[in-house]
Fold:
Amino acid sequence: MEKTKVNPDAIKAYEDTDFLKTDACRAIRLQLEFLRPDTIMAAHRIRSTIVLFGSARIPAPDIATAQLENAATQLAANPDDPALTAALRTAEARFKLSHYYQIAREFAAIVSRVSQDAHGCEFVITTGGGGGIMEAGNRGAYDVGAKSVGLNISLPFEQRPNPYIPENLTFHFHYFSIRKMHFLKRAKALCCFPGGYGTMDELFECLTLIQTKKIPLMPVVLFGREFWEKTVNWQNFADMELICPEDLKLVHYCETAQEAWDYIREFWAAHPEAQRHGKHHV
Structure:
């Protein structure tokens, strides 16, 4: 019997992925990228989050140590090789930063153990879903058997979700803008570790939204004063009258996981009404 051919015109619109990927359907894709994660997180009763930003290039301390030892061994065998010299410098830099991975992991574990045990799904750790600091955040929640969220982004060089995010709370985005909305929609604190352009983009957009009161005031924690003050001359913004002196108070430096959690708890203890009723119009 001859196989019946499917008439392309008979395909239902919502099943036609080629059509959904067209320019005409961009608005629908934007809506779906917002709606699907929002619906799933609501089903998981995730009421508030703490967002961790930071570099995907910062490895765990044990990995950084192994990389440094390997780079040193290779250079010792070929001391005149400029590529190996550069590789050693990179390994040394990442080894120096690797303690932030451990701090992020410890912080996520502290928050997840306390908030999810005592208050249901409050302060759920949320990351960009990739490696480095993002992995450390999801891993810390995983260590204590708690939920965490990964908001992954499709990139030309393929950012893969780290293995510590629950499968049903791993979300893949095409649009940076919708991903950023989900970072902030339930956020009750933003925790920034050393990072590159992506981290800076996320941090400054959040600060702008808080400064302009598009979203409520919340803790913005910068881990590692030495890194941040060397990288960003905050005081110069105020000295040049590009921001108000009060805007410098929007960020708070911390060095340890416990210090950051204590600051966040104290902040919300002093703002109980905002904690219960604050809404983010992002």
